[in-house]
Structures are given as structure tokens and as C-alpha cells.
Amino acid sequence: MTGRAKHAGTSVGRARRVARIALRVGVVAAVAVTVPLSFSRGRTAHPVCTAASGPIHVTASPDIAPVVEAVAATLSSASRSTCVTVRVTRQDPADVMDQIKAGAAQLPDVWIPDSSTWLLEARAAGLQLPGQHPSVATSPLVLAVPEASGVAPSGTHSPSVAASASAPTGESSPAHGDGRLRPADIAGLLASGVNPRVHLVLPEPQRSTAGLAAVLGLQDALAGRPQARAELTAALRLAQPAATTNASALLDWAAERSDVAVPASEQAVWHHRLAGRDRTAAVYPPGQAHAFDYPFVLLNARDSVTGEADVLLKALQSSAGRQRLQSAGFRDSHGHAGPALAGVARFGPIGPSADRPPTVASVQLAIRTLQSIRKQARVLAVMDVSGSMDLLVPGAHGATRLQLAQAAAARGLALYPDSTDIGLWVFSTNLTPSTDYRQVVPMTRMTAGANGGRHRLSRALASIQDVRYGDTGLYDTTLAAVRAVRRSFDPSRINAVVLLSDGKNDDAKGISLRRLLGTLRKEQDQAHPVPVITIAYGPDSDATSMAAISAATAGSSYRAKDPRQISRIFLDAVGQRVCRPSCSPS
């Protein structure tokens, strides 16, 4: 959808030749097709049009535009009053949105985008959209998965994920009998660890309904799970950005792979299969609240336009119009499939659910979520090694607080990709002649391999020893850590401090809590934010003070009375980039 719409002239033959040009991956053309139609409101058309009102301009999403053209063409032999010319232009909704945001003086009389989510964005851009915007067709979101992946079973009319696809916890999660996936199924399909069976290939959500619907669908599928934020982070972090937003080009590319899942409309996958270009199966995520719903939007309220636009709308909604839409692989506005769709293997009779539609806030959050997750991180991990960390943990088979914290930190930091920069400090009191803290590993890129930063961090964590009689220099260390990260701030990354302590500040010579909080607030820089994520560890930790530190830096605080909870906390902290700066522990 990177191209701009261009009129192809008034020749129907020429327009059809333009529409047949094959699109390659990475090149998306917005093809405008003009269909001049002379019609009157009787059963026979006048041979010459004499209307003074001018043509009706209809801009439709490229996938549904051919049907709109065909339905409009029938009006030339079915109408009876003044002649009207209907010009149908095929244009990607994102390109229309570009025109709206740019304040274009000339917009189409009627707009049929592929989803009502574009209308949310249009209103947010200041466009007035009065009246109703009825849907003329629907098509649910599916994940197009090549048969070679082994995820989508072959030879069935009701698609489902294979029973062996597991959720992150490892349980087997067969799909429901109607072909829908349970939340565990979708999580297992896309977020099953470092090496999932398939990777999500994600078109840019800001320019693709399929990409946006996939992110919204993942959020819904994982909502309410104990580690929802971390699982969403993992799934989206593993997602591969698509080289194009053109569905046909993406499906062509995916057909040559066995390890990808491409979000698309059901109609796009049906059309692709019907053309015989691949054997991709459609896997249905749970819920269809974000299905493609093709609203009929009147942008020009002039009387000379509204009457003829209503004729076109009624023709699309008529029995003949619905049959044309269903014959092209769409469902009707109620989600009912026609014989053409139901007759092709792997397309089941799944209609829209009653889930609530997305809101402006949910759409903006979905886009911000992906942008945040794709943004790399710089994290300074700061670990308490004071004497209390040497205490044994009941029920932990002789392990100390420090040993459990080391293991949990190793698991948590391993969740960050190789492109992350991570540093490691330890603190107690007087660890150096002038500070309560000591640098163990400077900010290092977490590259793999025997000599990479990941191996270096792992060895450093394993080698940390507690200071058996040391006190807790919490406040001085916190201020120093925030200042150190801000001094080397990288604006292309999320910069943060993760601080774990099991005690209270007891450095009598150090800064007070009141002064620390005041200094953190005073030095807080919106252009260089450094949130502090605090983990109050064990029954003796000062959770109140640590929560105040997090609040002063727009971070979040956690309390882990049981040291074994730290792994889950690290998982949630990884997902914090989704909601920052207004996060709360999950």
C-alpha cells in the first residue's frame, strides 16, 4: 500500500488490464479503475446520459472493488430516472487515510474501506462522519498457515490448530469443534518459546487491517492469562515484519515457507487458493470482533449524491448483491458464507462473534504496543548482595535468597533478544572505597556465542557472592543507577533500571528517602525517561519505599514474598514496555 491511486482512464478494458498486473513482494500498487455507468431508474437504459449532477465517485478497498463495479454495472439496465455515472476507484484504505490526514479538498462521494477501524482513525483526524455506515460484507481474520507447517491439518472443512500445538506451559490444546482456537491455542501457536512452530509475519498495523486485527486478536486471546503481558511481548517480539501489506504478495511468499503464519482476511486466502497458487489453510483465531466488515460510508451529503448512493447501497444489500459478494468469497453482513466459500476445503461455517468492537483507545494501544516491543531496550540490572541475601529460603532445599534471585534473574534476562543492551551492578554498603555499588558487567549487547555478551552476563550472575555482614545502601545506589543510564541514554531504545532488594536502606551516611524522591522527580526528563522497576524481595523488604521510587520515575514496583515468584515478575517486567509510562503490575 505504498503506491498512490491513479485513474486508469474511462476504458473498461484498459482498467481490467491494469487490474491484472501481478504484484511482487515489496511492491504494492493502488490501482484506480473507473467504470462509467449510464443508467436510469427504469428497466431499460437511456442510450445517452444527460444528467447534470455529475458522476458519483466511489473509492473501495481493492479486494471488494470488483464486486462493487459488477453490482454498479447492473444498475444501468435496472434504473429509470436521470442518468448517472458511477466511477469506482480501487484504493487501499491507508492511502485514503493519508489524504484525509493531509486535508485533501477532494474526497470520494462514497468510501468502502475493508474495516470500520479506519473510520475510528478518520474521526480522530477530524473528519466528520455523520449517519450510519452499514456493512455490505464481512470476512473474518484468519492466520494463513502453509500445510507443510504441520500446524493446520489437511483434508478438513473445519480448520483448527493441530492438537500438538502447545501453550507456553506445555499443555496440549486441541481446537474447539467449530474450528476456533482457544486462548491457549493461539498463545501456543505464536508464543511457544524461543523456537515456535510458526512465526507470525506481521504487516504494518498502521497501514494494514490484517496487521492491526492480528495484534488486537492476540491481546484478546491472551487477556486474563496470568502472564498475559509477557506472552504478548514474546509473541510480538518473535513476529517478523512483513515486506509488504499486499495480501496476495504475502500469501505467495508464505506458500514457499513452512514456518510462517500470515494474518489475512478469509476472503484473501480463499481467493488465493481458488487461483491454485498454493495450499494454504486458514486457521481461525478466537473471536471475530475485528473481522473485515466493509462499511458503506457516505462522505458527500449533497442531495444529488445521496439518492444515487442509496441505490448502490440497496443493490449491494439485495439478494443479488449478496450472492455476488458471497460468490467472490465474502460473507454477508451477518457473517453467513455462501456456497462458493463453504465448498472449498478448510473454510468452515464460522460467523462473527458478539465480542465488542474495537475503540479508538484499543486501536491506538495496539499500534503503540507493537512499536514499543519493536523498540530495543537498554536495561541496567541492580541486585542486592547484602548480608540478608545469605538467608536460607524455607522449602527451597537449602537455597539462599541470593541463589534463587540469581537463577530467576538469569531466566528473566534471557527473555530479552540478542539486540538488547544489559548491564549488571551489585550493591550493599561500601563495596568500593567510594560507593555502595559495584559494576559487574558494563552495558553489553546480548549477542550469542561463547564470547558473546549473553554468555558473559550468565557467568557474571553465577559468580555473584553475597557480602555476609554488609548493610543495604539502597537509596544511594538507586540514584547512581538512574543517573548512569541517563548519561548514556540511547533515544532509539527503552532505557530502564531493574532493581531487586530484600531489605531496607540502612546506610546512615547516605541520602534520605525524601531527598532521593525529590531528586528523582526533579531530574526526571520527558525526553530521556529512565523508569525504575523495583522488586521488593522477601518478607523483610521495604516495599513501600521501593514503590515510591518506582512512582517517582514512572516505573512499576513488585512485591515477591516468596523468592520463587521472581521469575514471573521478570516475565511481567519484560512486558512493561507495552504499557509504559502508565504501567501497573499484572
Describe what is shown at a glance.
The protein is an alpha/beta fold.
Q: CATH H-level name of the largest domain... which superfamily?
A: von Willebrand factor, type A domain
Please give the share of residues in helix: 25-40%
The value of Rg in angstroms is 29 Å
Count of distinct strands: 17
Number of helices: 19
Shape, per Cα inertia axes: elongated
Distance between the termini: 37 Å
Strand content: 5-15%
Biggest pleated sheet: 6 strands, mixed
The CATH topology of the largest domain:
Rossmann fold
Strand order of the largest sheet: 14-13-12-15-16-17
Identify low-pLDDT runs: 1-52, 77-82, 153-184, 190-195
Number of domains: 3
CATH architecture annotation of the largest domain: 3-Layer(aba) Sandwich
Structural class, judged by helices and strands?
alpha/beta
Briefly, what CATH class of the largest domain?
Answer: Alpha Beta
- Round the mean pLDDT to the nearest integer and report it: 75
Structure description:
- The chain has 586 residues and is an alpha/beta fold.
- It folds into three domains: 6-129 and 295-329, D-Maltodextrin-Binding Protein, domain 2, CATH 3.40.190; 141-283, no CATH class; 375-578, 3-Layer(aba) Sandwich (Rossmann fold).
- 33% of the residues lie in helices and 14% in strands.
- It contains 19 helices and 17 strands.
- It has helices spanning 12-19, 65-74, 93-101, 117-124, 183-190, 209-222, 228-238, 247-254, 266-274, 303-317, 319-327, 339-342, 360-374, 401-413, 453-463, 474-487, 513-523, 543-552, 566-574, and strands spanning 6-7, 31-32, 56-60, 86-90, 110-112, 141-146, 199-202, 240-241, 260-265, 280-283, 297-298, 377-384, 421-427, 437-445, 494-501, 532-537, 557-560.
- The protein has a six-stranded mixed β-sheet with strand order 14-13-12-15-16-17, with helices on both faces. A five-stranded mixed β-sheet has the order 8-7-9-6-10, with helices on both faces.
- Helix 7 (228-238) packs across helix 19.
